[in-house]
Amino acid sequence: MLKNYLKIAWRNLIKHKVFSFINICGLAIGVATFWLIILYVASEWSYDRYNEKADCIFRVVQHGNWNGGKFNIAVTSAPFAPALKNDYSEVEEAIRIDAEGGGKITYGDKQINEGGMAFTDNAIFNVFSYHFLYGDPHIALLKPQSVVLTKTLAERLFGDAANALGKTIQIETSPTTITGVIDDMPANSHFNFTALRSLPANYTDKWGNSGIYTYVLLKNHDDYKKIEASSDVFFNKYLKGDQGPMRYKMELQPLTSIHLKSNLDYEIGSNGNITYVYVFTAVALLILAIAVINYVNLTTARSSVRIKEVGVRKVIGSSKKQLMLMFFAESVLLTMIATLLASVLIEFALPYFNQLSGKSLILLQFGFTKTVLAFFIFSIATGILSGLYPAMLLSGFRTIAAMKGQTGSLTSTVMFRKSLVVFQFIITIVMIAGSCIIYQQLHYVMNKDLGFNKAQVLTFHISDKTTRTKIAAIKSQLLQNPKVESVGIAGNPIGNNNIGSGDFNLGPDGKINPESKIVENLVIDEDFIPTMQIRMARGRNFSQTMPTDKKESIIVNETLVNELGWKDPVGKMVRTGVDAQGNVITKKIIGVVKDFNTYSLQHKVAPMVLEMPASANDEDNLYVRIGKNKIQATLNYISNIYNRFDIENKAEFHFLDQNFANQYQSEQKQGSILFIFTLMAICIACLGLFGLVTFTAEQRIKEIGIRKVLGASVTNIVTLLSKDLMKLVLIATIIASPLAWYGMSKWLQSFAYRIDIQWWVFAVAGVVAILIAFITVSTQSVKAATANPAKSLKSE
Amino acid sequence: MTIQEAPMIKITNLEKFYRTEEVETIALNKLSIEIATGEFVAIMGPSGCGKSTLLNILGMLDDPDAGSYVFNDIEVAHFTERKRADLRKHNIGFVFQSFNLIDELTVFENVELPLIYTGVAASERVKRVEEVLDKMQIMHRRNHYPQQLSGGQQQRVAIARAVVNKPKLILADEPTGNLDSSNGNDVMELLTDLNEQGTTIIMVTHSEHDARYSHRIIRLLDGQSVMENIMV
Asked: What chain B residue is nearest to A323 in terms of C-alpha separation?
């Protein structure tokens, strides 16, 4: 029986080539897109799950709030881990990771700069599942100045990882023994280090110095609730009332949710975003739905062709069940072919998709057997899903009517089919509008005035401390080249991360407010503001000619002035801290700068205090504005000058506009992926339309002939055939617009600075959809309209 | 040829209406007919007299609105669709004016189809299909598709398909309607042969010539039997 069904199915495929082609191509594109997204989503979900104890591993993070402020940070301080292990019997292990373990490695005459090293406790090997190639995980990091290298780093240093064990290398100034080599950390880890170094013996620090990542291994997964619940007790015990107005809270993040759900300050690496995972999953299902709908629509539209066969089979003795099975056999065979084709498409598309998504996915991500099995089950399920409605419809016709080829009025079927087309185009139009808005927003953030001129400014960090004392000489030598327009200095590279904040007592007129306010704090020299072309709103910039500026003056930004409601800020006094002798330091506001952004436009400009560097050590970031021509020559010049002062390190340049653009990398990535998927959706939806209109034209060929004989023009006929379908696309536009508006408003909320959504975006999306749909429909309707009517009339 | 006493088909006061929103048409009006096993009956009458309706009900493709239909001593008038289908596939073969072969299947596969639906084993199917194709003299066309055959050949395939399950009754709806006279005569000879081997045949026809092959002609008008001619 099955053989018979498959035989019929195969012959039907061969006989109706156009429809088979449309169905298979549409489904294949849909299935391929679906699988690409599933691979992507699965990879996002897989983060850290390779750890055998993943379920019981948590990261300890802190939340704090006080009057008018709050912080949410992924870091804790060094005493956290020992205290947790000591206080809670539920904690089996508590370990610390200090991500700042990178530096220059020297072995013999080999030198490499390796930033990706971390300090940690030996117990890390009890918590995380790292595979040791050489060495003993029980003792590897017990002694200070030990290091466990990953295979790649070991090979970089020694050629063969087998030669690494027991060797002593120099990391910065510290001789360190290699006590183990592990496999590289899997790419789907929320942190990824190239080497793990042991912490100094009895390492600890102040409770308030948060800069360490703390991970705990609990005995049972649910124990985290108890520890979180006693967070207040914990902080009261160890901070002993030192919190001031600050309220601390401890959170234990499950290891497996960090990558997708954690978005704190000072994350250990760059995380994903669960929202995108949900959005992509939805998009995957919707694209598959568009493809399945094509099959349903084309098959039911063609029911009048198949109906006689249904009648004959019923007369000969087929039951309804047998007929349904026959139609299922057809849809399953079709989806199987489509899935096979899809796997070829995936194989071709993966390199591009990987480039776009920054992943390294492969078709057989889950192994050969699992993938084949998944494809098999998937194609059967999709086949049954897409064949369900046609099978029910076609097998349900009454025998006699079917024999006569009467499908009845089928109003409900036609309505159903129209609704499905509308649904397809709603999805398509939402995606078109979404892509437009993402593009507009990204264009906006890339080009928005940040309050300074980011073009032609390069920055580099001075890592060598002695070089920092020679800043004045470096500046003057750089400025001898006419291509170097100006050079400024600041304590932080802006555009990369939080620049850090400080505690200031800012007062109303004349008095200093006893309650402090946490504001952003940037150390700059007198040339920074002119170099960056930041505008002054009031007062003046720091000046070399005013020796008091260095210690007694500050500049604030407009946001700070507005937040405090100051009318005349210049001349006010601010308490900035306490010096080593316990004397209060007060400084005078000498100027107000217009607001400028220091970070991506997801973040609002915060109140800010600008100070001059207290010591040479704070002068570690150079900002150089250069001329537009001969950039490479200028860069070479700057490198040469810099190397005269710092022979060991090379200057690593970053262009400021690039720094800011990098902040939107993930949005750009998501935008491009969505754009590609939009194209796919349009493509599949149009294939469906093409099929429908081809069929309509075929069915109405006699009617078209008669109309032409009676004097209808080509335009009349094209209109006749296109009108109905175009109406559906129009309805879809009307329904899609509010949906897209709602979705995109949500997305835009993640930006502190965002565009207003314009109504015309939806109009454009609708017009684009209508235009593409019309072109699709026209190809067939024009063909039908220009055909010779004598031929079509003779055909009956 | 012997005609047995017990009727194979006995319909009594059979009624069938067709309703649309505004009008009700009576297709069969208290029709009563008996047909004995082994008979060859022709049903004639003008268009719209109820011939096809009667044939559909006799073939259990449709159910009557009122009256009784006894087939081989079983009252089937109120059978469910499923029961009718079951009875039908084992007992009745159909031959249509427009052949109604399935275009995607070869001659062999078309004839094989009823055997598949009644669950006959594959080896047995081959034997029986070949047997019947041989009898219909279209064995040499077994691997051809319907569109590659002439009308007469197509109708022979259709008859082969109707008889392959060895039904007790064959219902033929204008079997020569789409054929030229020479091919038409061949088809009528075939039906006569089948009848002589014991198959009961009921045939709807417009052709007095074809009707002469039967034992008896039932003439319908407005859903009622108006005359019966016994052929000599």
From this structure: B117
